[in-house]
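User: I'm designing a mutation panel for Ras suppressor protein 1 and want to avoid disrupting the core. Could you give me a predicted structure to guide residue selection? Please restate the sequence first so the numbering is unambiguous.

Assistant: Good idea. Sequence first, for numbering, then the predicted structure tokens:
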Amino acid sequence: MSKSLKKLVEESREKNQTEVDMSDRGISNMLDVNGLFTLSHITQLVLSHNKLTTVPPNIAELKNLEVLNFFNNQIEELPTQISSLQKLKHLNLGMNRLNTLPRGFGSLPALEVLDLTYNNLNENSLPGNFFYLTTLRALYLSDNDFEILPADIGKLTKLQILSLRDNDLISLPKEIGELTQLKELHIQGNRLTVLPPELEMQTDWQLHYLARSVILAGNLDLTGQKQVFKAENNPWVTPIADQFQLGVSHVFEYIRSETYKYLYGRHMQANPEPPRKNNDKSKKISRKPLTAKNK
């Protein structure tokens, strides 16, 4: 262990420092950081931009953690013991290699912000109790492999931010309309062709739409806006695509119409073949096997 890491641990213990930042230190194994798991008093641990491939079960010993940041590592799996962190509020696992989440992951009663951006997750990666995370205010699932968003998303009624950008989503469940506190919805870069009529329940949204780097909102006044809706780069069916050209307010006016609800029902009954997947995803770094060089 380098002197600098040893010093960080000693200072935290001696001065009772609650925040420990070990980002960008070339750490490949948390167990190599001598004394790290004796720091049961710390509330914030940052291990971003390292070379971790796993998280040891010992993570449960850091029982007072409120913020845990593993952004930009090579983590392929998590221990079930991570659900023992009962005080955890912010968990950043973005830019790793996760294919699945451990059983019991939903047993984090204080979790408010969960970042799983840029992994290899899909709807089958989520444990059965994932949607027990009812304290979540922000859920980032962008740059993964979701084709379907489970209907249980409607249980996360405190969600204010839901980011689903750049997945393989072919539809959104009607239960998304139950997220009445939602302020940001990011669904750009998927395979969506229609929107569920229930989305129009978000009647207070002041929304804007970005389409292939061109702002189509035109004269829409976004000053002081509280809500954001981004939906570009989806193969919308012609009626919706036409409404987007007129502005997002027209889209939401259209999907709340009886005409649209009828057409949406017919569309879903027809069960059309979804658009093709984006083959560029195979180029993701997280798809490439670990080698001696990138370990």
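For picking mutation sites, this is relevant: The CA atoms of residues 254 and 260 lie 7 Å apart. Residues 1-199+217-287 form a domain with the Leucine-rich repeat, LRR (right-handed beta-alpha superhelix) fold (CATH 3.80.10.10).
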